[in-house]
Amino acid sequence: MEKVEHKGPCLPDVLHVADVAKFLGLHEKTVYTYVREGKIRAIRCGRSYRIRREWVYDFLDSESAFKG
User: Is 62:27 a contact under the CB 8 Å cutoff?
Assistant: First the structure.
């Protein structure tokens, strides 16, 4: 499978759940659910999560693979 080049808005290297939710157009609770289910990779920092930009793009690539 080839990687898709994302030429959308430029994202910082590390994001908070709120940033990911806004970028993906999802509710924050949905992003937390995806993190718990392992759909979106994240690192726990204290009581919050940090998500690397490439992990968001990996999630988008994996979701587009299911859509056909």
Answer: no
The tokens describing 42, both together, are 């994240």
Q: Decide: helix, strand or coil at residue 18.
A: helix
CA dist 27 to 1, 19, 31, 35, 67, Å? 29, 11, 7, 13, 21
Distance CA 30, CA 46 (A): 20
Q: Give the Å distances, CA to CA, from 67 to 1, 6, 15, 64.
A: 14, 17, 26, 5
Q: Reduced to 3 states, what is the DSSP secondary structure of residue 48? A: strand
Amino acid at the residue 13? D
pTM, 2 dp: 0.77
For the chain, which ranges sit under pLDDT 70? 1-9, 65-68
